[in-house]
From TrEMBL:
The chain crosses the membrane at residues 26-43, 49-71, 97-115, 121-139, 220-237, 243-263, 284-304. Carbon 2 of the heme B porphyrin ring is defined according to the Fischer nomenclature. It comes from Marivivens niveibacter. GO terms for biological process: heme O biosynthetic process. The keyword Membrane applies. This is Protoheme IX farnesyltransferase. The gene is ctaB. The lineage of its organism: Bacteria, Pseudomonadati, Pseudomonadota, Alphaproteobacteria, Rhodobacterales.
């Protein structure tokens, strides 16, 4: 065989290639927020049920990611940051990704229903459906508000965790969902500003493409302002308390300042320093969400949780 024919021969996919279909970095955030939702719920959970429940959430998140990669393979080939994903790189065939996504979806939902309860299983099924069908197949390519509405799928894991433990939906779990939902636009649009050309080449109607960076900056600031009362409201529930309020206030001031800097800049300033403020806002957003959930996680052990 010639060198050219060897290059054209697809190699057999390895375990690592299939694992990459599950978007493990995204899965880690899903698992963490679901775990916090489970732990802060006022009902003790048997460790085995908790383990199986969080495992099902992780598998369900991976399933929806695999279905997303199957559907988005055409635009993933165009975008620099996604061109090396398993399907566009030729490591995994599209039909394999579809089969993995469907199999893991069914497995995770059924197992969660049997191990925990069917409310948690329904919420997991809805999350998978929303991400794979509503967001990936419909919203992502049809509206610049794709990340806003589609963000619901990434916001639901703490409610699933709470439902695993308590078997219900409460104001606390709803506010945890609202926190992630309102956080997603300023988080993602900060990223979109400095990877603008990627979305344009792929034909994805990101707000930066359809309305420009100035409108995107305005929206980042608007959603950030709306995020603040949601984050603080958690402090007045049974899972919050004075310590949470103090930490949340500091985190909101930090993120608000980062978004304000992004909002006040013009394109000439941004391009002059290679979008340093936008990249900083994106990094701050990651710390902002992680630390909010981290403080909720440790509050019960400190004795400063609740009122």
């Amino acid at each position: 065989m010639t060198d050219a024919s060897l290059q054209d021969t697809p190699r057999e996919a390895g375990l690592g290639d299939y694992f990459a279909l599950l978007k493990p970095r995204v899965m880690s955030l899903v698992v963490f927020t679901a775990l916090v939702g489970l732990i802060v719920a006022p009902v003790p959970v048997h460790p085995f049920i908790a383990f199986v429940g969080i495992l099902c959430v992780a598998v369900g998140a991976g399933a929806s990611a695999s279905l997303n990669m199957w559907w988005d393979a055409d635009i993933d080939r165009i975008m620099k940051r996604t061109a090396n994903r398993p399907i566009p790189s030729g490591k995994v065939q599209p039909e394999e990704a579809l089969a993995v996504g469907l199999a893991l979806s069914g497995f995770s939902v059924i197992l969660l229903g049997l191990a925990a309860n069917w409310l948690a299983a329904f919420l997991l099924a809805f999350t998978i459906f929303f991400y794979a069908v509503v967001y990936s197949m419909w919203l992502k390519r049809s509206t610049p508000q794709n990340i806003v509405i589609g963000g619901l799928s990434g916001a639901l894991p703490p409610m699933i965790g709470w439902a695993i433990a308590a078997g219900n939906i409460t104001i606390e779990s709803t506010l945890l969902v609202a926190l992630i939902f309102m956080w997603t636009p300023p988080h993602f649009w900060s990223l979109a500003i400095f990877v603008k050309s990627d979305y344009g080449r792929a034909g994805v109607p990101m707000l930066t493409e359809t309305h420009g960076r100035r409108v995107t900056r305005n929206n980042i600031m608007g959603y950030m302002v709306a995020l603040v009362p949601v984050a603080l409201a958690i402090g007045f529930t049974s899972i919050g308390g004075p310590l949470y309020l103090a930490v949340s206030a500091a985190l909101n001031m930090w993120f608000l300042k980062a978004c304000f800097v992004v909002w006040r800049r013009d394109e000439e300033q941004a391009e002059a320093d290679n979008f340093a403020a936008e990249k900083n806002a994106f990094k701050v957003s990651l710390a902002y969400l992680f630390l909010h959930f981290a403080v909720l996680l440790v509050l019960p052990a400190t004795g400063f949780g609740g009122w």
